[in-house]
Amino acid sequence: MTTQQAAGQQLTPVTVVGLGPMGGALAGALLERGHPTTVWNRTPEKADGLVAKGARRAGTVAEAVSASPVTIMCLKDYDTMYAVFDPAGDALRGRVVVNLNSGTPKEASAAFGWAAERGVLYLDGAIMVPPPLVGHPESVFLYSGPREVFDEHRATLASMGDPRYLGSDHGLAVLYNAALLDMMYATMNGFLHATALVGSAGVSAVTFADLALNWFMPTVVDATLTEQAPNLGRGDYPGELGTMEMNVSALEHITRTSVEQGVHSDQPRLMKEIAERAAAEGYGGQNYLAVFEIFKKATPAG
Ligand SMILES: NC(=O)c1ccc[n+]([C@@H]2O[C@H](COP(=O)([O-])OP(=O)(O)OC[C@H]3O[C@@H](n4cnc5c(N)ncnc54)[C@H](OP(=O)(O)O)[C@@H]3O)[C@@H](O)[C@H]2O)c1
Known about the structure:
Blueprint: H1 3-6, E1 14-17, H2 21-33, E2 37-40, H3 48-52, E3 56-57, H4 61-66, E4 70-73, H5 78-85, E5 96-99, H6 105-117, E6 121-127, E7 140-144, H7 147-157, E8 162-167, H8 172-199, H9 205-234, H10 244-261, H11 266-283, H12 291-295
Parallel strand pairs: 1-2, 1-4, 2-3, 4-5, 5-6, 7-8
Antiparallel strand pairs: 6-7
Helix pairs in contact: 8-9, 10-11
């Protein structure tokens, strides 16, 4: 029970625009928490299940936005947002709109400009969990935009998950989203490629996962990433315990092993090329984390 419910107050009414798998989960979580919930979707039948559970179906976006002080939007992308919300016109003025579509920082900043022209109080956000985890208190949701708007509506946002405020720069939520997903895909690809590599000798994924994950957490995550993160900020990459040149040669072995074992070799080859570039740029005697200096710059043309 929320503090508002404990005090016998009605929870803030919320509108959800966009009822794909994610928007439907958001509306479901808000309803379950007890928020009077209004919904709108281009394909109206997608609201049927929510209406059966007590949601109110709006006939237009203007009607949907007018029904609640806070509107959560969860549409395919930012272009869809303009197409859907522009027809709402003056109904938007003075309303809080929280954009949970995926996009880029530039798209988020442009959306803020669009919102400011219409008198909309705008937060940009990103959802870091799949639909089945929406509504769990530990599910991370990222937000950026005006602090006072976030603070005023934090309790409502907490009905969907754990709201984390990142700062007033509107692009921050989608930037963090891209960064975290970048890390997720790179880590998943690392595990999947490694599993294919040992799989070439008949080792099962379950057998490998048991050893690999128990090695990865203390050796890579704790001893390297957590302990050495402060060095990244300082550009401090002492090479006494292992140099970039040594790592280029390790990546060369991984690439050749992949070829020998008949598995895909692009991923280790690309990592080797990046480490070689670091060595060519003067980091050959420093440790592997100096690759960070290469990642901070745009990919050279050609
Ligand atoms: N699903 C996930 O695991 C997940 C996780 C994190 C973030 N997200 C983000 O959440 C957002 C929604 O994702 P989703 O999985 O629910 O499905 P989606 O396919 O990305 O978006 C579906 C929603 O967009 C609407 N839509 C698409 N084109 C439209 C148009 N031209 N005019 C009006 N409405 C339009 C759909 O309406 P109709 O129903 O009428 O087609 C539906 O409401 C995306 O930005 C996605 O990146 C999703």
